[in-house]
Amino acid sequence: MSDAVARIEKLVVQFDRSGTPFRALKGVSLDIAPGEIVALVGESGSGKTVLGNCLLGLVPGGHRTRITGRVEVGGTDMVGGPEKDKRRVRRNELGAVFQDPLTSLDPTMRVGKQVRERGATAQRALDALTECGVPEPGQRIRYWPHQLSGGLRQRVSIAGAITAADPGGVPSLIVADEPTTALDVRVQDQIIKLFARLRDDHGCSILLITHDLGVAAQIADRIVVMSEGEIREHGPTARVLREPQHAYTKKLLESRLDIAGPLPPASVVEAGEPVLTLSEVVKDFPAPHKRGEKRRVLHGVDVRLEAGESLVLVGESGCGKSTLLRIAAGLETPTGGRADVPPAAGRPQLIFQDARSSLTPWLSINSQLSERLAAAGVPRKDRPARVAELLGQVGLDARMAASRPRQLSGGQCQRAAIARALASSPGILLCDEPVSALDATLAAQVVDLLDDLRRSTGVSLLLVTHDLAVAKRIATRIAVMTDGRIVEEGPVEQIFASPAHPYTKQLLEASPSLAAVAS
Amino acid sequence: ACGSGDSGTKATGPADQLRLAVSSDLPTLDPSTVYQYEGNQVLTAVYEGLLSYSPDSTEAIVPQLASKYDVSKDGLTYTFTLRDDVTFTGGRTMTSKDVQASFERLADKKVASQMSYMVMGVAKYATPDDHTFVVTLAAPSSSFLSLVASPFGPKIIDSDVLTKNAADSATTYLKDHTAGTGPYELTSMTKGQGYELTSRADYWGGKPGFAKVSVKVIGDAATQLLQLQGGDLDIVTGQPVATLDQFAKNSGYKVAEYPTLQKSMLHLKVTGNLADVKLREALRAAIDRDAFTKQIFGTHAAVSTQMYPVKNVPAGTAKDDWTTDPTALTTLAAGKTLTLGYVSGHARDKQASEALQAKWAAAGAKVELVAVQGSDIYGLSSNLASAPDMIYETAYPDSTHPDTWSRLFWYSDTAKGNGALNYLVGGTKEADAAIDAGAAATDQATIDADYAKAGDLVHAQASYITLADMNDSFIMRSDLTGGGHWLPAPLTLDLRTLKRAGN
Amino acid sequence: MGLLKQIASRVASMLGVLVVLTFAVYFIQRQLPSDPARVLAGRTASPEALAAAREQLGLDKPFLLEYFHYLGRLLHGDLGISVTSRNEVSSDIGTYLPATLELVVVAGVLALIGGLILGVIGARDGWLAGAVRFVSVAGASAPTFLVAILLLLVFYRDLGWLPAGGRGDALAASEPTGLRLIDNLVHLDGAALADTVNHLVLPALVLALSPAMAIGRVLRSSLRATMATDFVRSASAKGGSWPAVVWRHGLRNALGPALSIAGVQVSVMLGGSVIIEMLFSWPGLGNYLSDAIANSDLSAIAGVVIVLGFAYVLITFVVDTLQILIDPRLREPV
Amino acid sequence: MRPGAVAEQSAEVADPRPRRWRVVPGRVRSGSAEKICLWVVALLTVLLPIAARLMPAGETEIVGVPFTAPGAGHLLGTDDQGRDVLSRVVIGLSASWWGAIAVIASGVVIGAVIGTVAGMSGRFVDTVLMRLTDAFLALPGPLVALLVVAALGPSFRNVLIAVIVTWWPWYARIVRGQVRVLRRLPHVDAARSAGFSTFRVVTRHVFPGVLRSVVVVASMDVGAVLLVLAGLSFVGLGAPPPAAEIGSMAAAGFTYVFSAPWVALAPAGVLFAVAMISNFAGDAVQERMG
Ligand SMILES: Nc1ncnc2c1ncn2[C@@H]1O[C@H](COP(=O)(O)OP(=O)(O)OP(=O)(O)O)[C@@H](O)[C@H]1O
Ligand SMILES: Nc1ncnc2c1ncn2[C@@H]1O[C@H](COP(=O)(O)OP(=O)(O)OP(=O)(O)O)[C@@H](O)[C@H]1O
Ligand SMILES: [Mg+2]
Ligand SMILES: [Mg+2]
């Protein structure tokens, strides 16, 4: 494979973490052939981003980072080579999409200029924006980044990545790091198709970094599985998915929540009392950019949550799901309508999308739990025992109590947040996208935990997600929301078997699944 | 590293130009308003009076624009004969009209002159001819002549200018123009930065030593010194003793010393904390005046011997002396915290006050220092309770006549403009009477006796303690010679006779 | 629309600040033991003259009334009469302001340029950055008077390269603006211009020193933070060199904090000019103010405070506007 | 008035990125020199008052002939009154040092209270408090000092009051900016949804998050306040003589800078050194935490 566009040989990257060395990559070798799409999957922190950055010649961590091995792109040494050559390669042959779309655009430069930064023509920039599914690109090029939504911003940075300086206007290698996290499944689908087209029409190679095996399955020629800074396994997509060799790959595949699987055994919910009733809820926010004007986010929503049931709210980004939950939690007052919780049900507890940031950073888990227990009237002497019990309930070691949130992993934080919610002994748990930030293994664990809790303690769940696979796994009932309205509602079996609303159908179609490849 | 007195002189400077410095700007060049002794350096070069003190630093009064004068027997009528060769800037010849207008201007409300007291006793003026000017006083005043001769006294202004600008009594015009008879005229000025004076071709007294004099405003003494060393100044004054001594040893410079009427002294309240005369005497006795003078002024001042500035009253009268004995103070001052005020911004006053404070502390009296803003000091007498118990200051009278000193500082009845500088309201009725008697007397023996009596009374009251008679010290380039100096004009040189050697 | 409203509210708050300022000055001055009438009438004044002076200064009226009168006159540009110079305060300020303005503006430009250079060089890695950082911290720690006297000793007394003080030749043009740099340019007078520059160098340098360091330090840290952001990484991934990326992306984003600190530094410089003007015999407002304070010259003090306060508020306004121009996110009302 | 302050704006932007991306590439590691600085600062705080007491001479004690040059008898010579310059410098420094700390401490307390209240309150209270803060901020610092001292009389305490008056608004602005960011963070919502009192939410879940940036700014400010105090005392606004104060000593000595340079240079040099140490320490703190 001497004609590879990119070649990585025995790459070792060692960071300096306040004096102690830390190896993020432990001797990785990888070739990427022209026109090939390679999917790099693996758990969080396994070194995927570091690998991608090395391909770009942008070594993170500065001059204290030790790098050995070779990284070549188009014959240029991207690690040890002269800075001038590296810049030429970046300018002409590489395209990069970084992990966080919200922060990868310069807030002080119009988006058109950023797309054209490498010298592409205005027309090429327009085309790129159109290809990436940016509506009205002619107007949008004059926007400032902050005037775009997260999804649009991600599309703009992809457009910037695919417009290189050379005459063809398309780079020969694109490094795309989690390019679709901010997008809902429909736009995600569009981007994946764009990548496929770039390969087909221009012979572009793509290194697609993702934690979603479903996405990988859709377009990758080859899958490379990483964990702990090493490549565990690689091979053609179908083979890796069908016959995983390495134990880690197997675990990854097993734990993935897939929309194609069978429904879990239905749990019987007695048609109990409603514990939460939202009736005709309307919410207006002041419209951005326009003083005095209002924007209606919720247009009269009715939700009835019964004791012990698990209602899942799915819907596209920005349709008002979080707002509805915040109203239910009493954190926001509705403009119209009512949110009723019978006193017996207690104060609903909200579990936030990003668990880590919902924990007070400077307080230990123990004090955050004890504080809740105190508020719930638990006497001081009983609190330590109760904390240990709660942590046990969510599967956390009691020794974790002394830790502060930043010392815990994402999954552990999510559990701690659940434990904290439980400390207030609520009748209702409101969960906002509880797993979207977690990798497949962790996501499965958390979903299982919530389901178990519901079954064992009888707490009612109102859960928001945009991932239908999650809904399928945990819901007793599903409500589909778009544009501030609930457009379809029904038992989980019914929604999956016979969706009625066109939006629900689109959602089901666009959801990636391994089933197609694996079978 | 910065011992700089030994670094040689830089370029001698332009032969026909003299460069001086003043430490603060003149608010105006109006000769009826400026009452600032440094500013007088500019004004005495531009304006002249009828009489003047002798430029050899003695108390003698010599003719200037008046070639001679007569005083009537009753002491009421003064007849001045004016020179006929005097011209103003612009070429007009001076007449008695100009003199009268200038005297009258001092009393003009619109001018609000602080020197108006000098002509307060005038009943009328007369100008029988162009060269005769007659002043008639309402009552005899033994100090009148000395005030006319004072460097702060009435200066003669071109009356054409006064009539042309009569609307505001020429106060605006004279701010930045000169219309005098002196050897120099103002040719350019930059507010806050300096003045350029140019010698006048038709000056009656002959060509001065320099064609140009530039006066720079340089607030900081150290910066002035730096410019002297850098060759941008020819003369500086107001320097600390250590610097004077250092430059005296340097052959590139010389230090010129002249006596002045400036006195280093203390005012003491006779009420409140210090109501007991014993305590005031004890405070006085605790001061070792010789040591104090040596520490603060080195060789540049003499230990004070009289209640008056030098040459005011005959030697041996109005004596201010005591034997140093700090022992009494401890018990008398016990339990009291006394305050000593000094005028803020004057480094040497502060240094002197600190030295006094230290002396008294050593003798067992607790004294705190208070900085008093320059102009606030005049308001202290109207709010005596909140004033400091003592004030240290270096003061000077406008003339050598004892009345100027005693009336301003000691007069206890402060109505009618008397005792304006009697900040802490010392003095006694008897002393007031003696001062008035001296002023009204016409023969010298009576005058001397009355003022001596006033001095003795105040000494006995211990409301004023005089410490030292200060000299003027100028550091100048060694090639400068022949400068004159008037006794009542501190920090001022007579520029008519100053010149650069070999020029 | 939004921008106009923002400006309007700024102007309103500006006026509010000035009212507070004048009131504070008035109030405090009235509490002082000093008597401006006494200053006006002079040390040998009779009681009648004193009363007349008191009436002339309006000190015989109740405080609030006097204050409102004062505000009213202020609106007509009348700042009253200085008791020491006996001039209109406004004309005195007119006389002294250009000198201070020229000094502060030149020092401000020097500080900005210096801060920019220090900040940008310091943001990169390596020994040079370390050296710059050291110099900045050391420079920010040096007392003004020490720096001034050392520079004077070296450049004036020992080397003789630069003059010791003042604004230069009194005959140099001071029309039409009073700012000599501009005036001499207008008159095409090269020698006078050189003289003006010579006189400006030292005081402006000393005045600019600590602000330059402060701006440099803030810029350095915000530039370092900016250079670590994802969008800078994206820009580097597009093949820009370090200087190009700093210029196109880094500075624009990092300038905000540096600008706010620069605004603050203006007030530092206005204050610092009092000491500088004294040491360099600079004929400006600082010296005028010192004299006014020494003589308890109420109108003069109030006048200077108002002018300085106004200048400061104006600068803040300019800084805010600049920030809005630089960062489009600030253009919308929140 | 405030040379060393970090602009509060950079602190206002909450950084949503995971911790590791905040690692500045190749940032200067906390070197040993900075550690030493931090130590010296801690030692200064504790040792200065002790040292002041151990000095060979008292604040106003006259120990010899005026203007004795530095030498074996008097390490830094004597001044115009014959007092020991070294003793006065150390005594004065100790007072200024603690003064600077007092200014910053009270500035932080006032600023924290006002900033927190403004940050947590609705539009109206916020606007009123911030306008007030802005008004104080717009007061030209040195001038306020002049006026306060003129009104209350010259004393070290009054100078401190004057500096505090112009210093607290900075902290108020920083705190308010941070509080406004923090109060929107999910963990505050979490605390609110638990039904805690506002006081508890503020004190436990909001304010500790502000402390960090305040500490960073405050640590950079010590040196600046030292210089400001010295500057005010230099122009004659400090404790009345004969109190030992760095600025007034330098000013008094300035008159003799050519004949007895040590009288001015000793206090100025020591001030320079100490301001530099504390600025380096502040820089180190900023580099670590900021
Ligand atoms: N600049 C750095 N300094 C020190 N450690 C770093 C640095 N950058 C990354 N690391 C560490 O290297 C490891 C690999 O990081 P990397 O960003 O490549 O993970 P990833 O596989 O992309 O994970 P994710 O899916 O969460 O994005 C992590 O443990 C991370 O903490
Ligand atoms: N405080 C606010 N002020 C103004 N607009 C708001 C506010 N909070 C939310 N919105 C707007 O309300 C709409 C609904 O927001 P919400 O967060 O409920 O969406 P969502 O359905 O949870 O979306 P996502 O899946 O992206 O989290 C969005 O368009 C959002 O921009
Ligand atoms: Mg990553
Ligand atoms: Mg949401």
UniProtKB/TrEMBL annotation, chain A:
InterPro entries with a match to the protein in the record: AAA+_ATPase, ABC_Ni/Peptide_Import, ABC_transporter-like_ATP-bd, ABC_transporter-like_CS, Oligopep_ABC_C, P-loop_NTPase
UniProt xrefs under Pfam families: ABC_tran, oligo_HPY
Topology versus the membrane, per the UniProt entry? Peripheral membrane protein
Molecular function via GO: ATP binding
Please verify whether the record's keywords include ATP-binding.
Answer: yes
Instruction: Give its localization.
Output: Cell membrane
Q: What is its EC number?
A: 7.2.2.11
Cite the entry's keywords alphabetically.
ATP-binding, Cell membrane, Ion transport, Membrane, Nickel, Nickel transport, Nucleotide-binding, Translocase, Transport
Substrates-to-products reaction catalysed: Ni(2+)(out) + ATP + H2O = Ni(2+)(in) + ADP + phosphate + H(+)
All residue ranges annotated as the ABC transporter domain in the record: 6-253, 276-508
PANTHER family linked to this entry: NICKEL ABC TRANSPORTER, ATP-BINDING PROTEIN, OLIGOPEPTIDE TRANSPORT ATP-BINDING PROTEIN APPD
Concerning its family, UniProt says:
Belongs to the ABC transporter superfamily.
Q: What is the protein's quaternary organization?
A: The complex is composed of two ATP-binding proteins (NikD and NikE), two transmembrane proteins (NikB and NikC) and a solute-binding protein (NikA).
Q: What is this protein called?
A: Nickel import system ATP-binding protein NikD
Automatic annotation (TrEMBL), chain C:
Membrane topology per the entry is: Multi-pass membrane protein
Keyword entries, A-Z: Cell membrane, Membrane, Transmembrane, Transmembrane helix, Transport
Q: Does the keyword Cell division apply?
A: no
State the Gene3D superfamilies in the record. MetI-like
Q: Where in the cell is it found?
A: Cell membrane
Question: What transmembrane ranges does the database entry give?
Answer: 7-28, 103-122, 134-156, 200-219, 258-280, 300-322
Q: Which InterPro entries match?
A: BPD_transp_1_N (IPR045621), MetI-like (IPR000515), MetI-like_sf (IPR035906)
What SUPFAM superfamilies does this protein's entry cite? MetI-like (SSF161098)
Q: Which intervals hold domain ABC transmembrane type-1?
A: 97-323
What's the chief localization of this chain? membrane
Report whether Cell membrane shows up as a keyword of the record.
yes
Family of the protein in this entry: Belongs to the binding-protein-dependent transport system permease family.
* Protein name in UniProt: Peptide ABC transporter permease
Which species does this protein come from?
Winogradskya humida
Automatic annotation (TrEMBL), chain D:
**Membrane topology category:** Multi-pass membrane protein
Q: Which SUPFAM superfamilies match?
A: MetI-like
Location of this chain's protein in the cell = Cell membrane
Give the top-rank taxon of the lineage listed in the UniProt record for this protein: Bacteria
Which sequence ranges are marked TM in the entry? 36-55, 97-120, 132-153, 159-175, 214-239, 259-281
Query: Could you tell me which PROSITE patterns the record lists for this protein?
Result: ABC_TM1
Keyword Transport listed: yes
Q: Where is the ABC transmembrane type-1 domain positioned along the sequence?
A: 93-282
The primary site where this protein sits is membrane
Q: Which UniProt keywords apply?
A: Cell membrane, Membrane, Transmembrane, Transmembrane helix, Transport
What PANTHER family does its record include? Answer: D,D-DIPEPTIDE TRANSPORT SYSTEM PERMEASE PROTEIN DDPC-RELATED (PTHR43386:SF1), OLIGOPEPTIDE TRANSPORT SYSTEM PERMEASE PROTEIN APPC (PTHR43386)
The family classification in the record reads: Belongs to the binding-protein-dependent transport system permease family.
Q: What is this protein called?
A: Cytochrome c550
The organism named in the record is: Winogradskya humida
